[in-house]
Design a protein that fits this description.
The complex is a heterodimer of chains A (115) and B (113). Chain A is mainly β. Chain A is built from no helices and eleven strands. Chain B is built from no helices and twelve strands. The chains are: A mainly beta (115), B mainly beta (113). Chains A and B meet through strand 5, strand 9 and strand 10 of A and strand 5 and strand 6 of B.
Amino acid sequence: DGGITQSPKYLFRKEGQNVTLSCEQNLNHDAMYWYRQDPGQGLRLIYYSQIVNDFQKGDIAEGYSVSREKKESFPLTVTSAQKNPTAFYLCASSIDGQGVSDTQYFGPGTRLTVL
Amino acid sequence: AQSVTQLDSHVSVSEGTPVLLRCNYSSSYSPSLFWYVQHPNKGLQLLLKYTSAATLVKGINGFEAEFKKSETSFHLTKPSAHMSDAAEYFCVVSDRGTYKYIFGTGTRLKVLA
């Protein structure tokens, strides 16, 4: 079964802790994305990567970090510098991220709650 | 700059009646447009996409959308609502310069029995 997996589904963090959200895809897609979703808002782009070993900041990158060491993996770390990290996090991928009609496919999401 | 506006934050329909979810876009170029559906605590699922091949786009689960350049609209419709259609729907435009997605704020569809 091809697709995108995210783990864990629910994550709880104490203030001041860093946490890492996993995103894996077996679609052989070059491009991967991380979004944050808050109630009543659309999705906002945190980071994206169009190729292995390269990534760019999105619109709300402060307090987050990523790596792209393997084509199939794009983990997101929420650092203690992120002031309001409680949100639903979605990972997506697309074939190459270079085409205007390039469709993004989404994972099931991780809900992060800061206690 | 490109943008997308979903005109209704909430829509309620009775089961078996038509669904209309409205989306207007702003774009300097011929845009690529998408509709996604999100069920509670789930990821986004692609319903359909417009890429200039045809103005009437058919998607999954009986949904379709019509691209109207003169009205800068891309409204989503379905002839007969089903209880399983209750979800949040997002209209998305792909930015031609950066290829990034620009999301609308979503429309929550409620289907009444």
